[in-house]
Amino acid sequence: MSLLDWLPPKRRNLPQHLAAAIEAWRRLPEPDLDRPVAHLRWVVVDTESSGLDPARDRLLSVGACAISNKVLRLDETFEARIRQSRPSSEDNILVHGISTSAQLAGEEPAAALVAFLQFLRDDVPVAFHAAFDATLIARALRSQLGVKLRRTWFDAEEIIAVLFPDDAGEERSLDHWLARFAIPGYARHDALSDAFATAELVMVALEQAAARGIRTARELNRLCAAHRQLGQLRRGRGWS
């Protein structure tokens, strides 16, 4: 009996080497959020999509880089353009610059997504406006691999706004925060370039967290959750 006989139906259609890679990834432990922040490997993720609705639109590309031991690792990057059965609209292409031919000639989806899981390992994903990227990736993993990504995603925008509240203002775009900390965004709306820009923001945030005595990722997550609940309470009561 082969490994494929033991897999859920979605994964039985995969080549055996991809199915084996998924099973190896699934055996990894969950990230230990009680470890010191500086000792974690943070995987900073950005995506490009066929539209602005992560619950309906398609994942076009993924870029990711890693922060470990307070260092942005230039030797640890991931980039994949996902092959599409049909290209996105011309207006959408003007935003991300992934041409019709590039979309149709992208990487085979299952292989690209397995490679992303192998890059993520058992580490902590973080993205700017993370709910968007997390939803896109989760949908792609379910549809292509039959995999559920059980991870606590950290939102770089939320973290930076909580730690630098005087600079948050009403607009909380990536461009706003890059300008605030004089971080260049060399190729905006390119997944890997935006991941690098976000990673530099995360580095700023982690330094500020340490200065405020926030020791672990769990403490940072609780701080963000408390800030979120306070915001909901204020909006519910009409506070300014």
Strand order of the largest sheet: 3-2-1-4-5
Shape: globular
Give the amount of beta strand, in percent.
Answer: 15-25%
Q: How confident overall, as mean pLDDT?
A: 90
Question: Which architecture does the CATH hierarchy give at level 2?
Answer: 2-Layer Sandwich
Secondary structure category:
alpha/beta
What is the number of beta strands?
5
The CATH superfamily name is: Ribonuclease H-like superfamily/Ribonuclease H
Parts with pLDDT < 50 across at least 5 consecutive residues: 1-7
How would you describe the oligomerization state of the chains in this entry?
A: single chain
Number of helices: 10
CATH topology type? Nucleotidyltransferase, domain 5
Largest sheet: 5 strands, mixed
Number of domains: 1
What are the secondary-structure elements, in order, as H or E?
HHEEEHHHEHEHHHH
Q: What is the CA-based Rg, rounded? A: 19 Å
Helix content: 40-55%
- Reading off the top of the CATH hierarchy, the class is best stated as Alpha Beta
What gap, in angstroms, lies between the N and C termini?
A: 64 Å
In short:
This protein is an alpha/beta fold and 240 residues long.
Description of the structure:
- The chain is of the alpha/beta class.
- It has one domain: Ribonuclease H-like superfamily/Ribonuclease H (Nucleotidyltransferase, domain 5), CATH 3.30.420.
- The protein is 47% helix and 15% strand.
- The chain has a 5-stranded mixed beta sheet with strand order 3-2-1-4-5, sandwiched between helices.
- α6 (130-145) links the parallel β4 (124-127) and β5.
- The longest helix is centred in the last third of the chain and has 21 residues, at 191-211.
- It starts with 8 loop residues before the first helix and ends with a helix.
- Residues 1-7 have low confidence and may be disordered.
